[in-house]
């Protein structure tokens, strides 16, 4: 069954009284793969609480994100506070399966406003703290002599660097496949360098290229952070 048909069937059979239903995710973006699922946002004014559920239907894996007109706002805020606006993104890109135009437009407008605004700006103290953690992790990486340790320090280094560069530049974060996608949206050339540096280490075990890449990135934001750093003093 085609995705739109399958999604519409789910709404008809399981959520017939909902006010809004949107199909988001890779299917909505036209980027579906053989492992893609149907990401469906449901808004129902009669619900007293929200929930998320996964199941199979019509040959498709399905994830539904079910809310009322208050809980979706709470999740919009929580997602934005963590820097990864998952629900606003689903609503923004969602294909309408059900819903009055005025209500759907309001939901999408709220989502788009949040996405366009970007995440809250980090304080100077937060930027110093995050730069310190990158410096500390880089030193652990440089000093490590066991391959098994180097691998997982590098993983952490990638996460910290990704978070820092995007957040200080007012960009949203992403994880899994969105890790590199959001980085490319920010700076295609930097994303290429990021991938090349980590790929070189993972492939060869040679660390110098990755160390240089991290140090050059830090230099753009004030360099390594250690001397004089303090929390809570």
UniProtKB/TrEMBL annotation:
Q: Which residues form a coiled coil?
A: none
Keyword terms of this UniProt record: Transferase
Q: Which CDD domains match?
A: NT_KNTase_like (cd05403)
What Gene3D superfamilies does this protein's entry cite? Answer: Beta Polymerase, domain 2
Positions of the Polymerase nucleotidyl transferase domain: 22-43
Q: Name one GO molecular function term.
A: nucleotidyltransferase activity
Q: What is this protein called?
A: Nucleotidyltransferase domain-containing protein
Q: Which organism is it from?
A: Bacillus wiedmannii
